[in-house]
Design a protein that fits this description.
Blueprint: H1 8-16, H2 33-38, H3 43-47, H4 54-65, E1 69-71, E2 85-93, E3 98-106, E4 109-118, E5 121-127, H5 133-136, H6 153-162, E6 166-171, H7 185-194, H8 196-219, E7 224-228, H9 238-244, H10 246-259, E8 263-266, H11 272-281, E9 286-288, H12 300-307, E10 312-317, H13 319-324, H14 328-342, E11 348-352, H15 362-375
Helix pairs in contact: 7-8, 8-10, 12-14, 14-15
Length: 385
């Protein structure tokens, strides 16, 4: 490494805090399907049997393509105060499908959910824990055990293994109507209108737990804190987000700012209004993936012009039309445009929309990296130190 070069960790941290690194960080979203495919194993080996864990597969992927890593896979270990007991039962297994029922025993009784694993796709949950919110609401308190005594052993192991090849952080979600407690997303929205008081009680439980979890996470010395939800403004309205998620997001970003730890928000889909809210009403540092139409509603140059003074931006090459279906030349052209649109004065991380699909050609990923190196320089501007 030349004396003037930063490590990937340094480069990402400078860009995430709206500084000017030695070059634009190159961090395509290769978070799930690409690392799993590259193991050569059925996906259920990674997602169910943890052989290898997804986080280890991602580390191998970062080094295979020589990208600047963005790592948030490992959370805190189980809290000693967690009163739940889990057991799995394999319902069926064929060459094409593995169905697993997970039982959760709480002091209030037993719940269960079913997950379908396939050899070439990420898992799908087909039945969530709660069937009837009124009857089973008492179970939900047990999904928020006090994390103050949760261990961080796996997180520290991952941090050591990836070294300076990535920023490493925890994911702390704010409450949202994309709750994972309910049997079917549509039922969550019915609950919001039919059982409003119960939903808001759950939101407040989640908020209190998120603050405690963040306090414990910050003790583990992460490089950054990841927050957000897929589809924050796609699967719920801005008004519902303001009521359920924004108060917690403000707390998360304020606490991290006071601790000197950068925050990154991820929310695929519609995100333009979310960028505005975050820039004007929170202490957030960076936001991604800023997807373009029709997957999202973001125009990178506009966001840079309006909010680049406040937020670092990460995005936004189209993952299907360009990365999956495009030619290497089209990938290069899209990379060049992103850097032209958002690279001025730093505060930009070159990435894709939400994660690249399983069958994205390796030659497109490699051209993405090559183009980032080719165009991602801050001519005439000294890097931040």
């Amino acid at each position: 490494m030349r004396e003037s070069e930063m490590t990937s960790k340094e480069r990402m941290l400078v860009a995430m805090t709206n500084g000017i690194p030695d070059r634009v960080p190159i961090c395509p979203d290769l978070s799930n399907m690409i690392p799993s495919r590259l193991t050569g194993k059925p996906f259920w080996d990674i997602y169910y049997y943890n052989n290898p864990p997804l986080w280890k597969a991602y580390i191998d992927c970062v080094r295979r393509f020589n990208i600047d890593g963005w790592f948030w896979y490992v959370g805190l270990g189980r809290s000693k105060s967690d009163q739940r007991q889990f057991r799995d039962e394999i319902v069926s297994r064929t060459e094409d499908e593995l169905v697993v029922r997970t039982y959760c025993q709480t002091p209030a009784g037993e719940l269960w959910q079913e997950t379908v694993y396939r050899p070439n796709d990420p898992p799908v949950v087909t039945r969530q824990w709660i069937k009837d919110l009124k009857k089973e609401f008492k179970h939900l308190q047990y999904f928020f055990p006090d994390p103050k005594d949760a261990d961080d052993e796996e997180f520290q192991q991952a941090k050591r293994l990836i070294g300076d090849d990535a920023v490493v952080g925890f994911w702390v979600h704010y409450p949202a109507l994309m709750f994972d407690y309910r049997d079917g997303h549509e039922n969550v929205y019915y609950d919001y209108y039919d059982n409003y008081d119960l939903v808001m009680e759950f939101v407040h439980m989640w908020d209190r737990w998120a603050v405690k979890y963040l306090e414990r996470a910050l003790d583990a010395k992460p490089d950054f804190i990841q927050t957000g939800h897929s589809g924050t403004l796609t699967l719920q309205s801005p008004e519902i987000f303001r009521e359920t998620g924004l108060p917690t997001l403000k707390k998360i970003t304020r606490m991290c700012k006071e601790a000197g730890v950068p925050t990154m928000l991820h929310s695929c889909g519609q995100e333009r209004e979310l960028v505005k809210i975050c820039a004007e009403e929170t202490d957030l540092d960076a936001i991604n993936p800023l997807e373009v139409s029709p997957m999202g509603d973001c125009e990178l140059a506009e966001l840079k012009r309006c909010y680049g003074h406040r937020l670092a931006l990460m995005g936004n090459v189209h993952t299907t039309e360009v990365m999956l279906r495009g030619t290497p030349d089209q990938v290069e052209a899209a990379v060049k445009k992103c850097i032209e649109d958002a690279g001025e004065n730093g505060g930009f991380i070159l990435s894709t929309g939400d994660q690249c699909g399983r069958d994205t050609p390796e030659e497109n990923i490699r051209r993405f990296v090559e183009a980032g190196l080719k165009y991602g320089r801050y001519n005439g501007t000294r890097p931040s130190v």
